[in-house]
Design brief:
200 residues; mainly alpha; Rna Polymerase Sigma Factor, Chain: A; Arc Repressor Mutant, subunit A
Length: 200
Amino acid sequence: MGTKDSERILLERIRAGDITACDDCIRQHAQGIYRFAKRLMRNDPEAEDVVQETFMNAFKGIARFDGRSELRTWLYRIAYNAAMMRLRRRKPEFVPLPETGLAEDSALMPRQLFDWSGLPEKELEKAELREEMENAIQELPDKLQVVFIMRELEELSTEETAKALDLTIETVKTRLHRARLWLRERLSGYFASAEPASPK
């Protein structure tokens, strides 16, 4: 049985009020939704609340799910909206990054680039590097951060990310590109210092 057929049957069971189907859905998707929520909320209890809210809202509104996107994509969209609502309540000073400012905002473009793709594999496995990367991701501008998390960390496709965030595919590609540039600059100093000293 294909993935689409399995999902269709799962949806039919949920719509029919099958509690075990809801449990199956949670088992399949809760881990990814939790990872995503934790990266946005930066707080375990709030991330757990987002997960709970996501599935409650999904099951309550399952009749409105038209199947034009995958169930996973729809769940990520619900989770994103739930997280944003909480973040706005937590940070009333939160101001979304203007759409028109992305292209012209020089702060988002790199001033120096370091080619860190060729570093030894063992460097990429260091806990210190992972922590540095996590910190850099948390510092990304909000609209770039959520696209980077969905595409690179949760491995949603460009189309899935666009549907989850109600964006065009081109906007997703642009934001992902800018996020990568932003992170490359942010981490360039770390990687430069990690390079072995050149022999004199």
